[in-house]
Sequence to fold (260 residues):
Amino acid sequence: MGFLSFLKSRQNDKHISPQPPILEIPAANANTAQLVTGLLQVDKGKRDEPWRLAFHQHVQTASFECGEPHIMTGPGGFSFFVLKTPEQGRSFEAICIHDLKGFLLEKGLGVAINPTDTGAEWLFSYGDIVNLHINNGFIMDTATADIQHIEMTKRVEVIKKGEDIMLAQPSGKYLPAPARTAIKKCLHEKGIKAPKILLLCRKKDGRMIEELAFNIYPADFPSVQQRDEAMQAIAWFLPSHYSVVSFHEAGWMTKYFEPL
Fold:
């Protein structure tokens, strides 16, 4: 079943869509697909910073073939959409990560490239897809992730408690609605009945940094390890340059939480 048929079947399970016509790999993406394939063949020990920059630049627009099955469960129990590098000279239904990002955001999926029984050539988390959606790329220079670049939906107040801390709610640009929904579902599965969120902005090393907090309290989990696992699960849904913090249920900042 082609990817277009897969999309239609997800929208209406009672209707079986006809097999779409096989598409030739777009000429504009042919070289990019071959370049990404070549980059993935580089030994992992030789993947330096120039390799990383080249890979992240080209992989989002490279043409891939949809894997079968389309979705797999990967590390941590998270769901990944399966993509395969194309075989040279063979026609296939070409798709690219950049064009898939809306679908991936809505469904709460990461991306697995060329997965096998023992691993995958590359994994993108859901947070990587969020970053692609927000910043039009997989790489984010954390030095530019300063408070003046972030639109807040609501500033609560600036509080003096040893340092300047501003409490706010993240905007849709900072945390898109599909990501909020995906995180809320994750927290429900972890036993948090009414997930809440807060954005802390504070000074560190002379610049403002942002940290997301959720109502994940030690008292809600049988062990510290299970609480930490919940925190790690949240991190999978966020761009890698985002920080997640936790504090005690009796902390003075909890009153500023709002529903996720």
User: Anything to note?
Assistant: The mean pLDDT is 79. The radius of gyration is 21 Å. The helical segments are 3-11, 27-40, 49-59, 97-107, 126-135, 177-189, 224-236. Residues 142-259 form one domain.
